[in-house]
Write a structure and sequence with these properties.
The chain is of the alpha+beta class. The protein has ten helices and 15 strands. It binds fructose -6-phosphate (F6R) and magnesium ion (MG) (2 copies). Fructose -6-phosphate binds next to loops.
Length: 371
């Protein structure tokens, strides 16, 4: 059976500030999803969240980019926005960037990661949801899962993985894409994916099939809105086992709380902290950025789950290290590398401050110049 897994997410109001979602808004999301299932639009669903972002995790048979599915998500987020407004939630309707729906969600605010595939006899899949960071944050773990034998033993040991995988990388600024075949091209690929604010892994494919095995959301709100709206808070889905990285290999990269961009005002580097679903609420300096992992077994398109994959003591060290790294970064205050480099600050509210001062800069005299 060919099934489509769609994760569609938006921040339509925070409780309190940008830290969480009010239960009444989540209830509305669940009601809408239950109704969509009842009507036969979707096979199954799971309503989830990370921080102030609501995720609609859905299965259906309509393929990615489907107008009915996207319209449903759009209408749902609009109706949740009404509740957010009634309850005076912070930034109500934040990710609703336009008034009218026009065919799909591209450029409209909500983020989405969708993939269509033939469901295997047993289909374990993990949905990752992040808060206070950007889409390129998935580059590091996807590389580890599908290209690094120090992470994924199967790349060496399992004959069905030994040939490696193909990575589709998007240039978000020039809106171009390229496919890298790995391991042959890992050095070439790392030139680009090591710069995650611009180059983002969109899909991973096996070498013998065009069916995706992983997909990410690549929307950058700033590029859509032309102004700073909030960080993109991306999502990702990864299929596991039987010729793909095992569940433990898919989760392993997060045992290292690597540095991502986002955190306070979308303007700071900080550790990416893996947390259980009860701990997805960023509070310290609006962070640190965090990620939850919902595990499912698909059965005829039904989402059997979720299992809260990071609610496990084996991730305690990662969390502890993340907190130490958070302390270390925080002590830099407004200095780089805690604060993002200037070119990335263009995507925040700082250019407005710079604009105000631009006429106060005067050229150095001949004597003052050092070259
Ligand atoms: C980061 C984020 C928050 C806000 C911060 C300021 O993605 O959403 O850190 O940027 O709380 O918010 P405003 O400008 O709305 O007061
Ligand atoms: Mg928010
Ligand atoms: Mg958020």
């Amino acid at each position: 059976m060919k099934v489509t897994l769609s994760i569609i997410k938006a921040d339509v109001g925070g409780y309190v500030g940008h830290s969480d979602v009010h239960p009444a808004m989540l209830n509305r999301a669940r009601e809408a999803l239950a109704e969509a299932k009842e009507k036969g639009l979707i096979i199954d669903y799971c309503q989830a969240k990370c921080g102030d972002d609501i995720a609609l995790i859905m299965t259906h048979t309509k393929g990615p980019d489907n107008e009915d599915i996207h319209r449903f998500a759009w209408d749902t987020f609009k109706s949740i926005t009404e509740i957010a407004k009634e309850l005076g939630q912070y930034g109500a309707g934040q990710d609703i960037l336009t008034d009218a729906f026009s065919g799909n969600l591209r450029g409209m605010g909500p983020g989405f990661a969708e993939m269509e595939f033939e469901e295997r006899k047993s289909e374990p899949v993990i949905c990752f949801l992040a808060d206070k960071t950007e889409p390129g944050s998935w580059n590091f773990p996807l590389y580890k899962m599908f290209a690094d034998p120090f992470n994924t033993a199967g790349l060496v040991i399992d004959p069905t993985m030994h040939d490696g995988f193909r990575f589709e990388v998007h240039d978000l600024i020039e809106e171009k894409k390229i496919i890298f075949s790995c391991p042959e091209e890992i050095y070439d690929m790392l030139v680009f994916i090591g710069a995650p604010s611009r180059y983002v892994i969109k899909h991973v494919f096996r070498k013998d099939s065009d069916e995706p095995v992983a997909v990410t959301s690549t929307q950058r709100l700033f590029l859509m809105a032309g102004r700073y709206v909030g960080k993109d808070d991306p999502v990702m889905a990864v299929r596991c086992q039987s010729g793909l990285p095992a569940v433990g290999e898919v989760l392993e990269p997060f045992a290292f709380p690597y540095t991502v961009a986002g955190w306070m005002r979308g303007s700071h580097h900080g550790p990416f902290m893996p947390v259980g679903m009860d701990w997805d609420t960023p509070t310290r300096f609006d962070g640190p950025p965090r990620v939850v992992a919902l595990g499912f077994q698909l059965k005829d398109g039904k989402l059997v789950g979720p299992r809260d994959m990071f609610a496990d003591p084996s991730y305690d060290n990662a969390r502890r290290r993340a907190l130490d790294i958070a302390d270390y970064y925080r002590q830099h205050g407004p200095f780089e590398p805690h604060r993002l480099p200037l070119d990335e600050m263009e995507y925040t509210t700082m250019p407005k401050v710079v604009e105000k001062l631009k006429d106060r800069f005067i050229p150095l005299s001949e004597k003052e110049r050092d070259r």
